[in-house]
Amino acid sequence: MDQFAVKVFIRLRPSVLDPAGEATKFASIKLGAEGIKSLRIGKMIEVKIEGKGENEVRKKIDLLCDRLFANTVIEDYEYSLEKL
Amino acid sequence: MDNFTVGVVVFPGSNCDRDVSWALEGCLDIRTKYLWHESSDLSGVDAIVLPGGFSYGDYLRCGAIARFSPLINALDEFVKSGKRVLGICNGFQILTESGFLPGALVANKNLNFICDDVELDIVSSKGGWFSNGDEKQTIKLPIAHGEGRYHCDSDTLKKLVDNELIALRYKNNPNGSSFDIAGITNKRGNVLGLMPHPERACEEKIGGTDGLHTLKSLILK
Question: Tell me, what's the ipTM?
Fold first, then answer.
């Protein structure tokens, strides 16, 4: 069995308004940060997972992302995978 | 109401289950039965309410974890049999997360938790959930949510409009919902999800009775 460290990034789709991102952008500007054109907030999920090779692990992660981690009506996801 | 029994589902974090039960039993004389979310036995239940609250602490997304409970798994067959399911607030979020209704509910546009009475237009009489199907009719119901902004893509919105699946629209959209949507039904009309709380509008003493009809209609065949 191989073990992998997976980092899943979940973002609101560009078409979905992100009011928390807008509020944070406003606060960033109040802090004095200049040049911020866009600020959107997402989630990152770290998973350690075992499987028989990368392909099998990718299948498991795809299922998790599609059915649980992200709601694909409003969110997109991508992930990186590192063999431990 | 003979033996007609409405199952009121209880998740860890549900907090409107007793309100729903009170409204059905106390105001409408309809028998209720609490259904713990880990049960998949829906025998003896003729209709189901998924009440408001914060199932599983709203972890990950509102309704995302509840979707995997044994009871929600059993709901598919229940819905296919034509029996009625009403999802209120968090119950609506669970119905969208689990695919019984299209779209999703996301954070209110202004990020506020909004607790208020709102005016609603009854748009569709599908399923008979609202009084007489008069398209101009308006009702007033309480809302209490932080993540009640209905969102769907334009294709889904077109399907909702074309199939008359939009049940309720806000008169003064409080949360930024697409097309002012406050509640929708499935195509068959036996599943309704809405953000407002009909169970909190079942007695004049607490501000109105506009929610009575929706709860009463659970007994419709």
Answer: 0.82
